[in-house]
Write a structure and sequence with these properties.
alpha+beta, about 20% strand, globular, transmembrane, membrane
């Protein structure tokens, strides 16, 4: 259950920071899905979530 809450929180944060993250290259990672339905764009950052989770894990192990 805790991993699901973490995943949902990561999706919310990544969607909120999408404009800034796309300038540094995140959001175009293989595994990120973006599509339009009825004029609205939907974005699911699966690849970016995994990448940022691994970076966070490595930092937590290092500290």
């Amino acid at each position: 259950m805790r991993w699901l809450l973490t995943l949902v929180f990561a999706f919310i944060v990544l969607n909120g920071l999408r404009g800034w993250l796309s300038r540094i290259g995140l959001g175009r990672v293989p595994g990120d899905i973006a599509f339009k339905v009825r004029g609205r764009e939907w974005y699911f950052p699966f690849g970016s979530t995994v990448l940022l989770s691994l970076i966070g894990w490595a930092l937590a192990r290092w500290i």
